[in-house]
Amino acid sequence: MKRRDLLRTSLAASALTALAAPAVRAQNFDRPLRIIVPNAPGGTSDILARLIAQELGRAVGQSVVVENRAGAGGNIGADVVAKSQPDGHTLLLMDVTTIATNPALFPRLPFDNAKDLAPVTMLIYAPYILGVANALPAQDARALAAHAKSAPRPLNAGNSGVGTASHLTLIELADAWGREMTHVPYRGGAPALTAVVSGEADLTIAGATQAQPYAVNNQMRAVAVTGQHRLASLPNVPTFRELGWPAVDAGTWQGIMVQGNTPRPVIERLHKELQAIVAMPAIAARLKDLGAEPRTEGPDAFRNWLTETTDTYTRLIRANNVRLD
């Protein structure tokens, strides 16, 4: 090879190396990571964040801290991530139906969902469990629907917050049963479940990861579940589909997002690590015990889901005139 050709080849190789270097560096994590959970402790997002944090830390060689930043329908925590450095060190883990509903609920958001937050991957889907207070005179799903219609007062339905997926699903159920319910918002699914256990609320609907223990331990009565099939831990509890009820695939869809300008190589690295963590036998078994199903298709599938779900919930919120005030 002539010296001139050799020099040209060397320069080209150097240029390629220089271009590739930022992508390589972008995948490295050089300080502790934070997983922001925009809900109170004890909910599905919090349970999942603490389940994966240690393994994620091992995978990237850094410690991972879980921070609960509850308030404003998840917007406080989401805003922390939206305004973080775009380097993948600050992650948002939440029921992403909240991201899908908030644009229709809040006239002004402190961030732009589409620009300031980037999907990494969905993690799990957990069907909803419809649970009723043990004192309520309704032993099964059909008896509950009949009681809701004939009771002298509307049933108190606890939900995880105005405009949340649990609230909207309960609205759909009330329409199907032909009787309005009194919707009582709480700051997350865990407080709503506690209200049912104490008898403060008549019923609620919450993700299986947090609701299942209450049902299995007979602290409340599970009468129906969403999703494709019955839960192994509650084999006698029928699905919404079996009952002919609406919202058959409603549930909690837990996903990870990062700051919107985070480089694609970082997003792909995080997706790869999270996908492997959710598939670990011990974690997969724990998720199964909690009634959750892995959903780790990655950023593009997550973005498509988010777009479609936002459109669906926006129509439902507007049709029912759901407002935060």
From TrEMBL:
Query: Which Gene3D superfamilies does its entry note?
Result: Bordetella uptake gene, domain 1, Periplasmic binding protein-like II
Q: Does the keyword Disulfide bond apply?
A: no
The record's listing under Pfam families reads: TctC (PF03401)
User: What's the protein called, per UniProt?
Assistant: Tripartite tricarboxylate transporter substrate binding protein
User: What start and end residues bound the annotated signal peptide?
Assistant: 1-20
- Which keywords does this chain's UniProt record carry? Signal
Mitochondrion as a keyword? Answer: no
UniProt record similarity statement = Belongs to the UPF0065 (bug) family.
